Amino acid sequence: MNFRRGKGREDPEINLIPFIDVLLVILIFLMVSTTYSKFTELQITLPTADAQKMPERPQEISVAINARGEYAVNNVRVSYQDPLSLANDLRQAAGGAGSNPVVIIAADGDAPHQRVINVLEAARLAGLERLTFATQSRHGK
How far apart, in whole angstroms, are the C-alpha atoms of residue 33 and residue 45? Predict the structure, then answer.
């Protein structure tokens, strides 16, 4: 039943002022109640070292493998029959029994993979535990 004849119906309107007031009160509450903790840096005491120059470089044995799979130990070509013969060549290059040389393997990029594995096996048979691979950087690429 519509008792108000002739008057048009008013469209509902949302009043934003009380909504903004409530949001400001919540914002103030959050700002006051939030604790700001100061993050401190980690306290680290770094170790110190009395670095001295190494008395001498460790003995090195250079094993080169070219693209055809030929071996050279300390720039002297050696013939390969099996890993045991290459191990004997490595022992001769190592010299004394008390030395623990570093074996540096410098293989050509096109050298057969098996040839590098043969050097690793020969070093194992010779008792040489310190191995590394020589690389070169590409300049201009």
Answer: 36
